[in-house]
Design a protein that fits this description.
The chain is of the alpha+beta class. The protein has one domain (3-203). The protein is 27% helix and 24% strand. It has five helices and eight strands. Strands 1, 2, 3, 4, 5, 6, 7 and 8 form an eight-stranded mixed β-sheet that branches. A hairpin with a 2-residue loop joins strand 7 (164-166) and strand 8. The radius of gyration is 18 Å and the shape is globular. The mean pLDDT is 95.
Length: 220
């Protein structure tokens, strides 16, 4: 699409949202025909209106493999924006995902809050995330108020959602994986343990790197 064609489309279609469509396209390929549960953030709390919410919302898909697949909307440019046209990367270049071993979306709400906090961190500090990084947390369960042994996050490229191209550039999908305190401490001590942990998880059958908040076993 040329810049002229893009501007013409912007003028003619108030709902033109190429960034949003790129996200939907990636997940439509994974879950054809599925209408995800979508949770929009409160408009009044969004940063553009003076609030501290940097995401527009989340979609939760149900995998036939027994987990919920959550994706954010807002780390990339979603709507019509002339200034974003033709860039190599769309916005921060990625949306966040997480796969939770849950059969009820209500049990996933804590993760939406967590992803909002991570988005706020990136937008306010201008420090973005990349695969094979980690978020060490404070030693407490990621799901506050539970006794889960999952206290930290490891980041990887989503094992299923493929990088998308739009008029705004590339959108990747960075998957968050919940890990135990023992695992995060082993990674802090030796960064080569990142790949070792991923390999051990996959060897035990968790090829999609699903987060099980009930997991008590540590691989490292």
């Amino acid at each position: 699409m040329t810049k002229e064609e893009f501007l013409k489309r912007l003028k003619e279609d108030d709902e033109y949202s190429p960034g949003w469509q790129a996200i939907d396209d990636a997940f439509d390929k994974l879950y054809p025909g599925q209408n995800p549960e979508h949770f929009a953030t409160d408009m009044q709390t969004r940063a553009m209106f003076g609030g501290d919410e940097y995401l527009d919302g989340f979609s939760i898909y149900t995998s036939s493999k027994g987990y919920k697949h959550i994706v954010t909307y807002g780390m990339t440019v979603l709507y019509g924006d002339e200034d974003a046209f033709g860039e190599e990367w769309n916005g921060w270049g990625y949306e966040m995902t997480i796969k939770l071993k849950e059969d009820n979306s209500q049990n996933c709400m804590w993760a939406l809050d967590m992803m909002s906090n991570l988005a706020r961190y990136t937008y306010t500090t201008e420090r973005f995330f990349e695969p094979e990084q980690f978020v060490k947390g404070n030693g407490q369960p990621l799901h506050i108020g539970t006794d889960s042994k999952i206290t930290a996050l490891l980041l990887v490229s989503d094992t299923e959602a493929q990088t998308q191209m739009s008029v705004y550039g590339k959108t990747e999908f960075i998957q968050l994986i919940g890990i135990t305190e023992s695992e995060i401490q082993a990674i802090i001590k030796d960064r080569s343990n990142v790949r070792k942990l991923i390999e051990l998880m996959k060897a035990e059958g968790n090829t999609d790197l699903v987060t099980d908040m009930g997991r008590t076993k540590s691989y490292l």
